[in-house]
Amino acid sequence: MDARFTAEQDEIRGALRELLRRRCGPRELRGALDTPAGHDPDLWAALAGQLGLPGLALPEEYGGVGCSATELALACEETGRVLAPSPLLATAVLAAPLLLALGTEDQRADLLPRIAAGTLTATLAAPPTPALALTSGNEGEWAGGGRAGGVQARLVHGAGGTTTAVPGPPGGAADAGTAWRLYGQVDQVLDGHTASLLLVAAHAGGFARSRTLLFLVRGDAPGLVRIRQTALDATRPRARVQLRYVEAELLGGDDEADVLGALARLGDTVAAVLACEAVGAADRALERTVAYVGQREQFGRVIGSFQAVKHRLADVYVQLQAARSAAYYAAWAVGQGEQRVGPLALAQALEALRTAAAEAIQLHGGIGFTWEHEAHLYFKRATGDDLLFGPAHRLRAHAADTARLFERTEVSV
Predict the structure, then answer these.
(1) pTM above 0.85, yes or no
(2) Which of 131, 193, 357, 411 is least crowded, fewest Cβ atoms below 10 Å from its Cβ?
(3) Distance set, CA 52 to CA 44, 47, 108, 116, 321 (Å)
(4) Of 190, 234, 215, 187, nearest to 89 (Cα)?
(5) Coil, strand or helix at 286
(6) What CA–CA distance (Å, rounded) separates 52 from 210?
(7) How far apart are CA 233 and CA 216, in angstroms?
(8) How far apart (Å, rounded) are the C-alpha atoms in residues 123 and 381?
(9) 70 phi-psi bin (left φ>0, alpha ψ -120 to 50, beta other)
């Protein structure tokens, strides 16, 4: 592994940091959080139009930049520094890779160029942690996390009026005159209230032949109800999605696709991206804290001169650098096709962010937890990510179970 950044990676990071410095300061961030969408459409247009960020890891044939997930993870480190609220994670990290891996050529040609241009936002409607196999296997009754065992998918005859359920598609494809309909509910869908396209995980085939499939659902589809949820971390908006016999299109057109395997592989990439994002946020929290303790005076001295404060910040710095190394390795590994690296890096990054954010609040004193200061936003990001994708001890436990580290083996002598 070559630990040095390439010239292209340095250019992406530098250009993105400069754009975010101008377009996503504390005032712009708070203004975006107060909007119904929870993000600034102008910032998203700039990220897409000036930097091509949504298509960074998409092939050039679909309008993308042609980079790998490594560059996307490094870019998310910069967005994490400023807690930039945007559909980037949902669109480019969750949805686009699944469209690329499982979609038909027609689906890819129709959707991916619009995602790369920033005119189409998308998201994955499935419980983030189980579906991505980060803290447990994704073979259980998790699909959609809704009523009656999750979101249910059925083939029905006719369009409009009375519909009749049919058992299943001959040869893995729907017959003429039939359509997939989805019923159920999914909570905690990232940017689910604004996404133009939803990739919905659902059960199909009934009890005997139950399997998980992915479906494409338009954001304006009849019967689709989307409600923005009140979240601890307002910088990562999410929604409850209800599907009331919503018409959907099967992703890939083949109900024998390895959806669970694709989700598990996606989980490694998502974990690496989230690890880099958390490292960026922790770095910014530490940077702000160091600047503050160098200015605040107590007993006639700046508090940064006290040895106890130096020790606390030194511990944060060491933990941050260890997490950065793990996150960068995970970002490189997913670009090389390695698996099972991202979750461990994410565990370390989440702990580093939580420590950096907690120390930021403590060392900022009385203003650290107020709405007027940014420190609480970083602490809420740490806690929110822990709830959505962690916690760290479960990430490590699942990695240990997957590697069979603690299995007892019989040794014959």
Answers:
(1) yes
(2) 411
(3) 10, 6, 18, 7, 29
(4) 190
(5) helix
(6) 39
(7) 27
(8) 19
(9) alpha
